[in-house]
Amino acid sequence: MKNRLLLSLLVAAGTLASTADAESNRGPLSAPPRILGREIERFVMTDYITLAGPSGIFARGMFVIPAGQFVPVSEDAGGVYFQATNAFQARGGYSGSMDGGLYVSKTTAGEVTAYFGNARAGQNVNLSNRPLSRDDVKKLKIGKAERVEKAEKPRTKKK
Fold it and tell me: For the residues 8-31, what does the mean pLDDT come to?
Protein backbone atom coordinates (compact mmCIF):
# COMPACT_ATOMS: atom_id res chain seq x y z
CA MET A 1 0.00 0.00 0.00
CA LYS A 2 2.81 2.41 0.91
CA ASN A 3 4.62 1.60 -2.37
CA ARG A 4 1.43 2.23 -4.35
CA LEU A 5 0.87 5.62 -2.67
CA LEU A 6 4.48 6.68 -3.22
CA LEU A 7 4.35 5.50 -6.82
CA SER A 8 1.13 7.47 -7.43
CA LEU A 9 2.52 10.65 -5.88
CA LEU A 10 5.77 10.54 -7.82
CA VAL A 11 4.08 9.85 -11.15
CA ALA A 12 1.55 12.63 -10.56
CA ALA A 13 4.32 15.09 -9.69
CA GLY A 14 6.26 14.25 -12.86
CA THR A 15 3.46 14.79 -15.38
CA LEU A 16 1.44 17.86 -14.46
CA ALA A 17 1.33 19.22 -18.02
CA SER A 18 -0.21 16.09 -19.51
CA THR A 19 -2.66 15.93 -16.60
CA ALA A 20 -3.94 19.43 -17.33
CA ASP A 21 -4.53 18.53 -20.98
CA ALA A 22 -6.30 15.28 -20.11
CA GLU A 23 -8.58 16.92 -17.55
CA SER A 24 -9.73 19.88 -19.64
CA ASN A 25 -13.10 18.70 -20.96
CA ARG A 26 -13.56 15.19 -19.59
CA GLY A 27 -16.97 14.22 -18.31
CA PRO A 28 -18.89 11.15 -17.14
CA LEU A 29 -20.63 8.74 -19.50
CA SER A 30 -24.40 8.51 -19.54
CA ALA A 31 -24.56 5.52 -21.91
CA PRO A 32 -22.13 3.06 -23.50
CA PRO A 33 -19.77 5.13 -25.69
CA ARG A 34 -19.68 5.08 -29.49
CA ILE A 35 -16.33 4.74 -31.19
CA LEU A 36 -16.25 5.07 -34.97
CA GLY A 37 -20.03 4.66 -34.95
CA ARG A 38 -19.99 1.44 -32.91
CA GLU A 39 -21.21 1.05 -29.33
CA ILE A 40 -18.41 -0.31 -27.13
CA GLU A 41 -19.38 -1.62 -23.68
CA ARG A 42 -15.87 -2.71 -22.72
CA PHE A 43 -12.57 -4.00 -24.05
CA VAL A 44 -10.90 -7.26 -23.08
CA MET A 45 -7.12 -7.48 -23.37
CA THR A 46 -6.03 -11.03 -24.22
CA ASP A 47 -2.35 -10.69 -23.25
CA TYR A 48 -0.23 -8.29 -21.21
CA ILE A 49 1.43 -5.16 -22.62
CA THR A 50 4.70 -3.63 -21.46
CA LEU A 51 5.21 0.11 -21.82
CA ALA A 52 7.54 2.84 -20.63
CA GLY A 53 6.50 4.70 -17.51
CA PRO A 54 5.12 8.23 -17.66
CA SER A 55 7.50 11.17 -17.83
CA GLY A 56 9.20 12.34 -14.69
CA ILE A 57 10.85 10.05 -12.17
CA PHE A 58 9.53 6.83 -13.78
CA ALA A 59 10.55 7.74 -17.34
CA ARG A 60 13.23 5.02 -17.32
CA GLY A 61 10.96 2.46 -15.63
CA MET A 62 8.54 0.06 -17.22
CA PHE A 63 4.93 -0.85 -16.49
CA VAL A 64 3.05 -4.02 -17.31
CA ILE A 65 -0.62 -3.67 -18.21
CA PRO A 66 -2.05 -7.08 -17.31
CA ALA A 67 -4.60 -8.90 -19.42
CA GLY A 68 -8.15 -8.17 -18.29
CA GLN A 69 -11.14 -5.92 -18.79
CA PHE A 70 -11.29 -2.20 -19.47
CA VAL A 71 -14.58 -0.46 -18.74
CA PRO A 72 -15.58 3.01 -19.99
CA VAL A 73 -15.70 5.61 -17.21
CA SER A 74 -15.44 9.04 -18.89
CA GLU A 75 -14.97 10.78 -22.23
CA ASP A 76 -13.95 14.00 -23.90
CA ALA A 77 -14.48 15.30 -27.42
CA GLY A 78 -11.67 13.15 -28.85
CA GLY A 79 -11.96 9.84 -27.08
CA VAL A 80 -13.12 7.55 -24.29
CA TYR A 81 -11.26 6.59 -21.10
CA PHE A 82 -11.50 2.85 -20.36
CA GLN A 83 -10.38 2.08 -16.80
CA ALA A 84 -8.49 -1.20 -16.26
CA THR A 85 -10.00 -3.57 -13.72
CA ASN A 86 -6.46 -4.77 -12.85
CA ALA A 87 -3.79 -2.33 -11.67
CA PHE A 88 -0.68 -1.66 -13.78
CA GLN A 89 2.46 -3.28 -12.32
CA ALA A 90 5.76 -1.36 -12.07
CA ARG A 91 8.94 -3.06 -13.37
CA GLY A 92 12.51 -2.07 -14.12
CA GLY A 93 13.83 -1.27 -10.66
CA TYR A 94 10.56 -0.02 -9.20
CA SER A 95 7.91 -1.98 -7.37
CA GLY A 96 4.25 -1.39 -6.72
CA SER A 97 1.11 -0.95 -8.73
CA MET A 98 -0.95 1.91 -10.06
CA ASP A 99 -4.40 2.48 -11.49
CA GLY A 100 -4.57 3.09 -15.19
CA GLY A 101 -6.40 2.37 -18.40
CA LEU A 102 -6.67 3.05 -22.10
CA TYR A 103 -7.71 6.20 -23.92
CA VAL A 104 -9.37 5.23 -27.22
CA SER A 105 -9.86 7.74 -30.05
CA LYS A 106 -13.46 8.19 -31.22
CA THR A 107 -12.39 9.11 -34.75
CA THR A 108 -9.10 7.37 -35.60
CA ALA A 109 -9.14 3.58 -35.92
CA GLY A 110 -6.48 1.82 -33.85
CA GLU A 111 -5.37 4.92 -31.93
CA VAL A 112 -5.11 3.78 -28.31
CA THR A 113 -2.98 5.43 -25.62
CA ALA A 114 -2.36 4.18 -22.10
CA TYR A 115 -2.95 6.49 -19.17
CA PHE A 116 -1.95 6.36 -15.51
CA GLY A 117 -4.46 7.19 -12.77
CA ASN A 118 -8.20 6.83 -12.30
CA ALA A 119 -10.21 8.33 -15.18
CA ARG A 120 -13.53 8.56 -13.43
CA ALA A 121 -14.70 12.15 -13.91
CA GLY A 122 -13.02 14.57 -11.55
CA GLN A 123 -9.90 12.47 -10.97
CA ASN A 124 -6.44 13.07 -12.45
CA VAL A 125 -4.87 11.00 -15.21
CA ASN A 126 -1.54 11.17 -17.02
CA LEU A 127 -1.57 10.18 -20.68
CA SER A 128 1.38 8.24 -22.04
CA ASN A 129 3.43 10.23 -24.54
CA ARG A 130 2.93 7.69 -27.35
CA PRO A 131 0.09 5.45 -28.54
CA LEU A 132 0.21 1.66 -28.23
CA SER A 133 1.86 -0.24 -31.07
CA ARG A 134 -0.28 -1.89 -33.72
CA ASP A 135 0.66 -5.32 -32.29
CA ASP A 136 -0.48 -4.26 -28.80
CA VAL A 137 -3.78 -2.85 -30.13
CA LYS A 138 -4.45 -6.27 -31.71
CA LYS A 139 -4.55 -7.72 -28.16
CA LEU A 140 -7.77 -5.76 -27.50
CA LYS A 141 -11.11 -7.38 -28.22
CA ILE A 142 -14.54 -5.79 -27.91
CA GLY A 143 -16.48 -7.25 -25.00
CA LYS A 144 -20.12 -7.16 -24.02
CA ALA A 145 -21.50 -7.15 -20.51
CA GLU A 146 -23.37 -10.30 -19.65
CA ARG A 147 -27.01 -9.61 -19.01
CA VAL A 148 -28.91 -11.71 -16.54
CA GLU A 149 -32.68 -11.73 -16.82
CA LYS A 150 -34.64 -11.77 -13.61
CA ALA A 151 -36.13 -15.18 -13.14
CA GLU A 152 -39.80 -15.39 -12.34
CA LYS A 153 -40.58 -16.58 -8.87
CA PRO A 154 -42.17 -19.99 -8.91
CA ARG A 155 -45.86 -19.79 -8.16
CA THR A 156 -47.04 -21.60 -5.11
CA LYS A 157 -50.48 -23.05 -4.77
CA LYS A 158 -52.65 -21.66 -2.01
CA LYS A 159 -53.91 -24.23 0.45
Answer: 54
By CB atoms closer than 10 A (0-12, 13-18, 19+), residue 76 is middle
Dist. CA 92–CA 94, nearest whole Å:
6
Exposure class string for 20-52: b at 16+ Cβ within 10 A, else e? eebbeebeeeeebbebeeeebebbebeeebebb
pTM (predicted TM-score): 0.75
The number of angstroms, rounded, from the C-alpha of 121 to the middle of its chain's C-alpha atoms is 13
Model confidence pLDDT, tens digit, residues 51-96: 876 655 455 578 899 999 999 999 999 999 999 999 999 887 677 8
- The alpha carbon of 11 is separated from its chain's Cα centroid by a whole number of angstroms, namely 16
